[in-house]
Amino acid sequence: MPIIKIKNLNKKYADNQVLENVNLEIEEWDFFALLWHNWAGKTTIISILTNLVNKDSGTVEINGIDIDKDFREARKYIWVVPQEFNFDIFAQIKDILINQAWYYGIPFSKAEERVDYYLKKLGLWEKRNARAKDLSGGMKRRLMIVRALVHEPKILILDEPTAGVDVELRKSMWEFIEDLNKQWITILLTTHYLEEVEALCKKVAIISKGEIVENTTTRKLLSKLDKEVIIIDTKQEVTEIPSDLVKKYEAKKIEDNEIELTILNKYSMNEVFNDLTHFKIDVSSFRNKTNRLEQLFINLIK
Predict the structure, then answer these.
(1) Which single residue of 75, 80, 152, 208 could bond 37 by disulfide (Cβ 3.0 to 4.6 Å)?
(2) What is the pTM of this model?
């Protein structure tokens, strides 16, 4: 049974049809990405799931519970980590978290145990007695996630969780979020970092102009990519690119030790490297020019 089930969901603001007959199912323990185009309704879907916005029509079920029939019960299973910080900036970190547990009736001893565990897991233990206003932006983002986990919801909605954090912290948060999913928490991720989707998510849905234009596994979506562009770093300076490589891969020189190749999906990477070896081009490293999902996303929202 899907833990989130949306059927024929519609929402209109004035003359703007934000959601039109949206159907979406998210299975329990999924790591699901929701991508969107500007004004595509991502925020509206989250707001309807959390009862901040009323839908015009359609049905929404959370853990088998129709939100129109018993939203209080359905709401127990879900928590959103929003983009904006929404805690008392003058309160101490530990007090913010203990108070959150109190709202859900968690005994103090149990609440302390959970708070301490998650503070340590997300690298905030040494700041537990600091005031929220004294935290960096990245630490405030982590505090939002810890607060969300205190009552251990079945579903965690992460709305741009790594926005404004540095590369190193983003990587550590990826690892932590992956670990949460392995602990049987269903995660719905919204992000504009497409590399996060490729690295973390099992399934992905793309919304454009109020409609879901793609809903599949991340692997199947990537299989639709007809080509990708990679940058080859060479061990030696490349003075001239062989015409055969130019013809087959649209090869072009970027720097003295860099070549750009456009590889159609009918060619394997083994074939690419065999061709480079044939022309005595030694590869030291290679990388994608852009994230592989980026072009697919652009094509789907046109």
Answers:
(1) 208
(2) 0.79
